[in-house]
Amino acid sequence: MRRFWGLGLLLLVLAACGTDQGLPAEPLRLETKLPPAYLGEPYRTDLLAAGGVRPYDYALKGGLPPGLRFAGGRIEGIPKQKGTYRFEVTVRDAALGAVTKTLALTVGDPPPPRFEQVLPPAETDAAFVWLVRLKGRATLGFSATFALADLEPDLKTLKVAPGARYLVRYRPKDRALDLDLAFARPFSGGEVFRLVLVPGKKLAPRVVPRAVFLDAKGRPFPASRKTPLKRPGAGRYHLFDLVALAQNWGQKQKGKTPLPGDLNADGRVDGGDLAVLRAAYDWADPLALQGRPPKGQDGEQQKPQPEQKQKPPVEGEGKPGGGLPH
After folding, report:
1. Helix axis angle, 271-279 relative to 239-247, nearest 10°?
2. DSSP labels for 37-77?
3. Distance CA 64, CA 47 (A)
4. Are residues 149 and 35 in the same domain?
5. Taking the model in full, what pTM does it have?
6. How far apart are CA 112 and CA 247, in angstroms?
7. 236 and 139 within one domain
8. pLDDT value at position 145?
9. Does one domain contain both 136 and 101?
10. How far is CA 216 from each of CA 136, 141, 252, 253, rounded to the nearest angstrom?
11. Phi, psi angles (nearest 5°) of residue 197
12. Do residues 134 and 53 both lie within one domain?
């Protein structure tokens, strides 16, 4: 009896160690589906083999995207060129088995952040708080238009993320809310604003956004070109000036170099500059304004402008405080 018990234990041990002792339980295979890579962003993924007899050895034949390298079954680096690249990967195991698979890796433009909205889940005719978060990549700011349909915004209730500067207006004729907002530092996600909306009738609330986002360096995400904004308005200042103002809010000029965001040339960036910005703001699509540097940068000499008293908002423009701290 004891002899049979010992033989059974030996068989269990051999079965448990099978793949490491040259007795593969499953055929060797390569289970790899490569995630997409994005231009200029760090990329890292491991090739996954299974079955066969460990350890595995990997080899790659063909060209990886420029900026990426292959070693020990891992692809990593920072891609420098867009496109779809195909190559062969071979995995060998300790039992001299081998499997070869053709893989494709696509490098594209990084997608912009996206809005995540919190709205009532059912029909309502009562006022409610509309909460909007940002998800995805970091951004320095955005120009956005929200189609509200039968919803009326109470702009006095608008609250934005701490440290953000903004301009807002409502166009009743188009049932559209325009919001341009900039952060002092790249914003990587979270609640960006909230606002009370009042239904004109009983309905299931729905808000459709269109936006141009700026990346962490203040450049429009390439994907924004697929959804251009069509907003009326013409003025001297634009979203890039709002970003400069947000980044330098509370700063004082040192030396003779103009301080970006100091629109009234008084040597500091504060509410007075925000008032100047509001009075002559261009609501046009930022993509059409690309290339126009913020005032006070690139050696542009600003002409002193008197501080202007804040005018009554037009169609809700600038409420509450047009970006002043809450």
Report:
1. 180
2. EETTS-EEEE--EESSSSSPEEEEEE-PPTTEEEETTEEEE
3. 14
4. no
5. 0.78
6. 21
7. yes
8. 96
9. no
10. 12, 9, 24, 24
11. -115, 140
12. no
**150 in the same domain as 257:** yes
pLDDT at position 318, please?
36
Domain boundary among 82, 108, 134: 108
C-alpha to C-alpha distances, 196 to 120, 155, 319, nearest whole angstrom: 12, 8, 13
Please give the structure tokens belonging to residue 275. Answer: 């008032």
User: How many domains, the chain?
Assistant: 2
The domain boundary, picked from 86, 108, 130, lies at 108
Same domain, 34 and 88: yes
The tokens describing 116, both together, are 């995540």
Distances (CA, A) of 88 to 60, 61, 63: 6, 5, 9
What CATH number does the domain containing 168 carry?
2.60.40.680
Q: One-letter amino acid identity for 313? A: P
Asked if residue 171 and residue 81 are part of one domain, the reply reads no
- Give me the average pLDDT of each 10-residue run along the chain (326 residues): 45 43 74 92 96 96 96 96 97 96 96 96 97 96 96 98 97 96 96 98 96 94 79 88 97 93 96 96 83 49 35 34 34
Domain that holds residue 302: 114-321
Q: Is the distance from CB of 230 to CB of 149 less than 8 angstroms?
A: no
Three-state secondary-structure class, residue 6: helix
Determine contact, residues 88/104, Cβ cutoff 8 Å: no
